[in-house]
Amino acid sequence: KVILKKKKKLLLLQKKEWTWDESKMLVMQDPIYRIFYVSHDSQDLKIFSYIARDGASNIFRCNVFKSKKKSQAMRIVRTVGQAFEVCHKLSLQHTQQNADGQEDGESERNSSSSGDP
């Protein structure tokens, strides 16, 4: 699950009233399995984007963000890329375990149906 979040921060105005700084709130939230692509802009390294499938409509959506520092954008892209790798490895392990389980089940059926005591 990838959550892009900004810290909530209250600002004190001149009249001593508190207000929410909307630039510090949750911006976007998508589970990692719905994200298909992530990258930073080659011209402006502060800009990064990702493509995700919307859970309700099944439509692909491209989300583009600009960070204050290029290091932030690059770190986000790298982190999501690493999450992709982990998910892919887990998926391969799960597939292999299922295949091994099916092979074990087939060999048990074959030995019991052969009629040999």
Automatic annotation (TrEMBL):
Region (Disordered): 94-117
Lineage: Eukaryota, Metazoa, Chordata, Craniata, Vertebrata
SUPFAM superfamilies assigned: PH domain-like
Transmembrane segments annotated in the record for this chain: none
Gene3D superfamilies: Pleckstrin-homology domain (PH domain)/Phosphotyrosine-binding domain (PTB)
GO molecular function: nitric-oxide synthase binding
Designated name of the protein: Nitric oxide synthase 1 adaptor protein
Signal sequence extent: none
Source organism (scientific name): Mustela putorius furo (European domestic ferret)
InterPro entries named among the record's database cross-references: Adapter_Engulfment-Domain, PH-like_dom_sf, PTB/PI_dom
PROSITE patterns (UniProt xref): PID
PID domain residues: 22-89
